[in-house]
Amino acid sequence: MEERVFQATWTYINSHWSLILNWTLQHLQMVAIATAIATLLGVGIGIYIAGEGRENLANVVVNMAEIMLTIPSLALYTMMIPLLGSIPGVQSIGMVPAIIALILYAQMPIVENTYTAIKEVSPAIIEAGRGMGMSPREILLKVKLPLAFPVIMAGVRSAVVMSVGIAALAVFVGGGGFGIPIFRGIRNLRVDLIMTGAIFSSILAVALDLIFGVVERRLSWRSRGGGE
Amino acid sequence: MTGKRIMSFVLITLMVGFTLYFTFYGAQGWYSPASGRDMLLRTWEHIKLVGIAELLAIGVGISGGLLITRPGLEFLATPVTTIANVGLAIPPLALVAGVSPFFGIGPRPGIIALFIYSLLPVLRNATVGIEDIDKSVIESARGMGMSKLQIFTKIELPLALPVIVAGIRTSTILCVGTAAIAALINAGGLGQIIMRGQSVNFVPLMLQGALLTAALAVTLDLFLSEMEHVLTPRGLKLNKETE
Question: What are the domain boundaries of chain A?
C-alpha cells in the first residue's frame, strides 16, 4: 500500500515539474506580497503604539492581535468571502481575498514583536541617546529600531511560516498554490496529487523557516556586537 | 489581562449570536441553513475530535518531554525540540491531506493527523520548560537533602508547569483550526458545515461553521490562559511583577 502511494507520487512528480514550479511560484507570490505588506503595516503599527502616552491603545491592539491569532485560518477565510463581497468593486473570489486574509493574519505576530521589542529597549540606552542630543526621531531610527531588529525579524519569520500554511488554504476562495493539487486530489481520489501537494508545501514551509532562521541568527549576532 | 478577557467575551458573544441568527433566520429561497440540531451535533463532533487528539497529545507529549530531560537522555532534548519546531512549520492542510493516503478517510485518520500536529508544541514546551530551569535551583534542592523524586515533583514540575500549560494552549488552538480542515477527509466537526456551504456557495451556511469554530477557539484560549495564570507558582508571579 505505502509503496504504491510513493511510487505513484514519484511518477507524478517526475512528469509534472512545470506544473509544480507553477504552483510553487503562485504560492510564493501570495506569501511574498502578503508578508511584505504585513511587515510594513505591522512594523508601522508597532512603532506607533509603542510611542509615548499610547499605552491604552497599545493594550487594545496587542490584545486584539492575540485574539485574532487564535481564530482558525479556515474560519477567517470563510468570513472574508461575504465581508469582501459586500464592498463594491472588490472581488470576493480569487487571489485578492486570499492575500487580504493573509495580510490580516500575518501582521499580528509582527505587531506584537515590534511593540515588545521597542518597549524592551533599556531606558538607560535611550537616556544616553538623549544625552548625546538626539531628537526623538533619531532615537527611534538609530537606537530603538536597530536594537529591536532581531526580535522584529523573529516576528516576520513566524509570519512567513504561518503564511505558507495558510496560503495552502487559499484554494477555498479560488486562489492558487499547493492547495490546488491537494484539493483536486481529495476530490478525485488521486493519492499522487495529494502527496505531491503535501510534500512540496511542507518543503516550502520548512525551507523558508530555515532560511529566515539563519537570517535571524546572523542579525542577532551582529547586534550583540559579535565579530570583534 | 482583563482587557483581553473583556474583548474575548464580546467577540464570543457576537460570534455565537450571529451563528444563532443564521441558524434561525438564515433561509433564503431554496437554500436553508444548517438546523440547530445539526449544529449541536457538529459542534459535539468537533469537541470530541479536539478532545481525544489533545488528551492523547498531552499524555504522550508531557511524558515524552519528562523522559528525555532525565540525566542520561539529555542528548535527545535538542534534536527533539528542533524536530518539533520544524514539524510545526508544515502546513496543517498538508498534514491532514498527507495522512489520508495511508489511513483512509473518516474520524480515525482525522484524529491521527490532529494528534501528530498537537503533540509537537506540548512535547517542545515540556522539554524546554524543564531544560530552562536554573541548574543552581536544582543544586540547592540537592544541597537541602531532597531526593531525586522530591526534586522532580517539588522543583522541576511546578517550575516547568506554566511553560507546559502554554504549550497545551498553543496546541489546543492549532488543534481546533486543524480539526476544521480535517473535514476535508470526512472527519466530521464544524468544518463539515463550512465545506457544505462552500460547495453550494451559500454564505450563511459557511458563516455558521466558521463563526462557531472561531468562537470555540477563542473560548478555549481564554480558558487555558486563565489556567496558565492559576498554575504559575506564586514566586514566579512576584518575579514577573517586579520586573
Answer: 2-222
Rounded Cα distance between A189 and A195, Å, is 11
User: Would you call B191 and A74 a contact, using CB atoms and an 8 Å cutoff?
Assistant: yes
DSSP letter, residue A16: -
- Interface membership of A90 toward B (CB under 8 Å): no
Residue of B nearest to A8 (CA): B101
Determine whether the interchain pair A201/B91 forms a contact, defined as Cβ–Cβ distance below 8 Å: yes
Q: Which residues pair with B28 in a beta bridge?
A: B31
pTM over 0.95: no
- Domains of chain B, with CATH numbers? 2-233 (1.10.3720.10)
CATH superfamily of A2-222: MetI-like (1.10.3720.10)
**Pairwise CB contact (< 8 Å): A70 & B218:** yes
Q: What are the pLDDT digits (tens) for B73-122? A: 878 888 888 888 888 889 999 999 999 889 988 899 999 999 999 999 99
Per-residue pLDDT of A183-202, as tens digits, reads: 899 888 888 999 999 999 99
| 3-class DSSP assignment, residue A90 | coil
Say whether the ipTM exceeds 0.90.
Answer: no
**B60 lies within 8 A of chain A by CB:** no
A109 has a chain B CB within 8 A of its CB = no
Give the tens place of pLDDT for each residue, A107-121. 889 999 999 999 888
Question: Which strand (E) or helix (H) includes residue A177?
Answer: none
B132 exposed, middle or buried (CB, 10 Å; 0-12, 13-18, 19+)? exposed
Helices B203-231 and A73-85, axial angle in degrees (round to 10): 140
Contact A67 B89 (CB under 8 A): no
Residues of A in contact with B176 (CB under 8 A): 72
Which of A81, A168, A186 shows the shortest C-beta gap to B91? A168
